Amino acid sequence: MKNIEIPLIKRGFKFLLCIIATFFFAFGVIGFGTFLFTEGFSWWVLIIGLLFVFGVLLFASKIYTYLTSRQVHLVVESDGNTITFYNKNDSGKIFNKSEEIDLNKMGRFYIVKKRTRYLMNNYSYAFEEKGSRTSLFKTDVDAFPSLFESTENDRNKILQFVETVAPEIELGFETAWQKAKNNK
User: Strand, coil or helix: what is 82?
Assistant: First the structure.
């Protein structure tokens, strides 16, 4: 079984946004909890309060992963027929594991750049099945945890790895505009 392991970089600004969001949700829990105990039971207060609790737990788990992992790696494994993406931290804990993707069905594999509302770029991988003529039917592979990223060279190493395991897969760009821009 072939595999490639690339180190991921911590995203400091996004970590700060997660801390701010956690405090926001925590104040929401306190506010709705106080309202629940002073005004009496109400279903809408309980439901919104539980949504705030869910938000606290979600962002607290991201912060916990960020603080407890000194180094996180993206690992891509392939046996020639399937490919799997997952993350591994320095203690060996595996998380964010993708499903096994059948290489025989994969027609095109590429990097997807997503612009967030905080003016940051998030990257992921996507593939299209053989015979697909449009990227409307792509399948995203979210290989990067939200508070970590990789360099452009490391993202391209994954593309090269896919090419070595399955040379018949077309590697490329998400759109023709990106292809023209990068081929200058």
Answer: strand
pLDDT at 140: 84
Q: Residue 62 and residue 69: Cα distance in Å, rounded?
A: 11
46: which residues sit within 8 A by CB, 6+ positions away?
36
The 8-class DSSP code of residue 94 comes to E
Q: What is the pLDDT of residue 11?
A: 87
* d(C-alpha 118, C-alpha 115), whole Å: 8
115 within 8 A of 123, measured Cβ to Cβ: no
What is the C-alpha separation between 35 and 41, in angstroms, rounded?
9
Q: For residue 50, what is the enclosing H or E element?
A: helix 43-68
CA pair distance 120, 113, nearest whole angstrom: 10
Inter-CA distances, 98 with 85, 112, 115, 145, 163, Å: 5, 16, 22, 12, 19
